[in-house]
Amino acid sequence: MTEPAPKSRKLRLADVRKAGGLKRKVKKPAAKATEEAEAAPAPAPRRRIKRDDLPWKKVNTSILPGMDAGGGMMMLEELDGVAIEWEEDGRGGRTARFVESNKKAKGKAAAPEPEAEDEEDEEDVADEEDEDADFPTFSGFAASDLDDEDDEPVVPAEPEFNDALLPAWEGVPIHTALKRAMVALDFSKPTEIQRRAVPDGLAGRDVVGVAETGSGKTLAYSLPILSYLLRQPAPRAGVRRPLSALVLCPTRELAIQVNDHLSKVLSYALAEDEDDGEDDDDEEDDEAGKSKKPPRISIGTVVGGLSAHKQKRILARGCDVLVATPGRLWDLLKTDDALAAGVRALRFLVIDEADRMIETGHFAELESIVKLTQRNFTPDSGEYDDDPTFANTATVLEDTDAREDMQTFVFSATLSKDLQQNLKKRRRSKPKGKKASALEDLVEKLDFRDESPLVIDLSPEGGLVKTLRESMIECVVSDKDLYLYYFLLRYPGRSLVFTGSIDGIRRLIPLFEQLQVPVYPLHSQLQQKQRLKNLDRFKSAPNGVLIATDVAARGLDIPHVDHVVHFNLPRTADAYVHRSGRTARAQNPGFALQLVSPEDKAVQRALLRSLDRDAPPPELAIEGGFMPKLKERIALAREIEKAQHAVKKDNHDKNWLKEAAEAMDIDIDPELLSDAEDDPDAPVARKGRNKKAEKVPALKAKLANLLAQPLVARGVSARYPTAGSRVIVDDVLNNTAHGTMLGAGTLSAYDQMEGAKGKAPKPKRKAEPAKKQEGHRERGGKRQRK
Ligand SMILES: Nc1ncnc2c1ncn2[C@@H]1O[C@H](COP(=O)(O)OP(=O)(O)OP(=O)(O)O)[C@@H](O)[C@H]1O
């Protein structure tokens, strides 16, 4: 795809050169002048002048020989009275600088100076007759204009790359610096979606990519973008760079993750360049006040919940790629003309997790952002006068055209087949009589520049990844805590638990904290900083448990999530696919567990239908001997939680009462605030709560004692490991015993299900003899034996 001709009225010097040479008045140095120059003292440095501030004059190209109708050029302009100085860059290259011509000095003073132009490179095509006429005096320029360097934009050369290091990508024109990064990151082979999408992305096509969770979609759309950017001229210090790519994500965490992913790839790609960049331009770092080289490619993130002020500063400096959630971006657009113009003139628009985006409550913002990129969008039509963003930025929007060569990338793990069909046929308007879905609406508004965008559908049957194993535990609702606790202890690893509500998380977190399980919450009502902190803690805890709402269901790429637990089943098949997709990523094994109560049965049946399945996943075998002890622990933890909650509530009520009284300037009856047990007037309920509060330390001590006792399977003797109906001494001696449950099996949940399928399990640890395992379901029916 070719770059469009610049809208600017001037033709750039480099373009003119390419097209046939600049008509410029340059005088060859005479031998005499050279001699004089050698004898004369060194001339004072001549003042530089910015290219755009030079007094260019339009040339009528139709009168030039061989230039019929402009010779394919928009315009040719010429200059008088300006000289060129060549500056060596130390690497064998040279850069031309415009400087004030000495001829001006000639008119004022006698001392002649030699011309500095390079004889071989500068061709004298001037018309000698008007050599001295029309000299600019430069008096109209401010000193600051004259002193600035005027670098021609330089496109750094692509580093050498040995294709033998990355044979799977041979012939694909990914920038070689990125190829270098992929070798360093051990991404030697493209994933299927990358193999299919990247070449077309590089060739300028619009791409709609549907591929399973964890299949590397981020790089599938990023490699073409980063390759393009790396082939653009290096940024200049102090100049706001134009926005080239916008990546829209449904959640803040995903946006930050995409930023991190791209930054990591770039840090490897540019590692060598950064080491030798001593002589590059410096830029003021406005935070530290230190000189800092502008990054070769800058990636910015704007998401809700983090300081808008800081994000505005990032935008003011400018970035090449902006990763954003629609809500915050739309807010910032209201007051940032340059950003609005940047979005209008994007080179790449990416909609990541498109189907989720429309569910996040930001559809209106998303739609408006997309509108800015439409070629036929007319901000001055009057239609948008009531919208503050369009109204505030109307002038700049009117002056900016959407690019003809903008590429649109839409990626998701789930995208309706109907929609894909419509895209292929380019029938994006809704079929008659059928109400378009929000997603269809959105796609209709995307102004794909391609007649027919490339649609790549690699979604697996049923939407789930091949390396995922699923299972379920059926139990009554009130036992879900117990079975979750059992699962987390029995199968150590990193687990992501999805609940249906924030209240559910608020109940589970303190309960499991009492049980000393490393649990972290993630939901939309937490402060953004806390959300990110919890994610980081989860990522670094090998047995960590993240309890989350669907805010964590999409796109999050957390390394080595071993298990996903659906504490509550999701309502849609897409949500089930995305939630389960947080494990079994990038071809790794993963396990998803459904906790199914009788009330959940109808939802489960509906899910199975949508996933095109006729049977639920197999049940997980439970080692029932552990259950009585676990039940005891859970009951105590609940009791402590209840008592603590009552105290917290009481304190909260008292504070509220005090604040309300203060606000109304009234005195409050001290009895109302009394806690004293012997105070006959203290409210009865509070007295009861106080009693509970007093019990808390004793309950905690009891729980601590329980937690310190080993959990022992039926038939195992902790005291005499060589005795009992289940002898565990070998396991203990070989260090293959379960870490917290004596006598429990040590197969991972994945391997256990793999074995249950009748396939050869891939034991990571020593396999247990099957007869030693006992299965048991406490309530809800059948007993199982393995
Ligand atoms: N070519 C590759 N080889 C090996 N690993 C890769 C390759 N490309 C990407 N990955 C890794 O695969 C993981 C998943 O990638 P990514 O997050 O892009 O998946 P995704 O398809 O966007 O998933 P989701 O649908 O859940 O958002 C990441 O950790 C990434 O670093």
TrEMBL record:
Under SMART domains, the record lists: DEXDc, HELICc
- Annotated family: Belongs to the DEAD box helicase family.
Please list every transmembrane segment annotated in the UniProt record, as residue ranges.
none
- The residue ranges flagged as biased composition, category Basic and acidic residues, are 766-778
Native source species: Vanrija pseudolonga
One Gene Ontology term, aspect cellular component: cytosol
| EC numbers for this chain | 3.6.4.13
Q: Which reaction does it catalyse?
A: ATP + H2O = ADP + phosphate + H(+)
Q: Where is the signal peptide?
A: none
All copies of the Helicase ATP-binding domain together span 198-433
Protein name per UniProt: RNA helicase
Keywords for this entry? ATP-binding, Helicase, Hydrolase, Nucleotide-binding, RNA-binding
Gene name, per UniProt, is: MAK5
